[in-house]
Write a structure and sequence with these properties.
Number of domains: 1
Structural class: alpha+beta
CATH class: Alpha Beta
Largest sheet: 4 strands, mixed
Order of helices and strands: EEEEHEEHEHH
CATH architecture: Alpha-Beta Complex
Number of helices: 4
Strand content: 25-35%
């Protein structure tokens, strides 16, 4: 079911494994002004969370045809019907070189996970990226010891 506050955030890695982030505008009327954020945004009517991620990626960075995998969908405990999706994708060097940064935000960059830990980042997304990275490292460690 569509809810106007639902949306999708994207964890996009470049070929070196760094994560794409954008610096939000300093507009006090938006949530988390002046903080680093993951790409993404709100769903439009009759749009799936994954379709939202693809549309936002095009609107914010001019990128199309980036394969995305939905990592999770979290229902809000406070707002019935609100769902936040988080998807992952890997950009090629050609895609990174063809980024056309849109009108939202001050700038973008790619960061390593330790760098993200040090940024003035949207708190719950920063925590999510760090947790996800820790899980990935544990899986890699388990694969090596199996």
């Amino acid at each position: 079911m569509w809810h106007p506050e639902s949306g999708t955030k994207l964890i996009l890695e470049d070929p070196q494994g760094r994560i794409l982030a954008c610096l939000r505008d300093n507009d006090p009327t938006i949530p988390y002004p002046g903080k680093w954020d993951l790409p993404g945004g709100g769903v439009e009517p009759h749009e799936t969370l994954l379709e939202c991620g693809h549309r936002e990626l095009f609107e914010e960075f001019g990128l199309q045809d980036v394969p995305l995998a939905m990592l999770d969908q979290i229902e809000s405990r406070c707002t019935p019907g609100k769902i936040m999706g988080r998807a992952w994708g890997r950009l090629t060097a050609v895609q990174v070189g063809s980024i056309a940064f849109g009108p939202e935000g001050q700038r973008y960059d790619f960061f390593s996970v330790p760098e993200i830990a040090e940024l003035d980042f949207v708190p719950q997304l920063q925590e999510y990226v760090l947790t996800l990275h820790g899980l990935a490292n544990r899986v890699k460690l388990l694969e090596r010891t199996a």
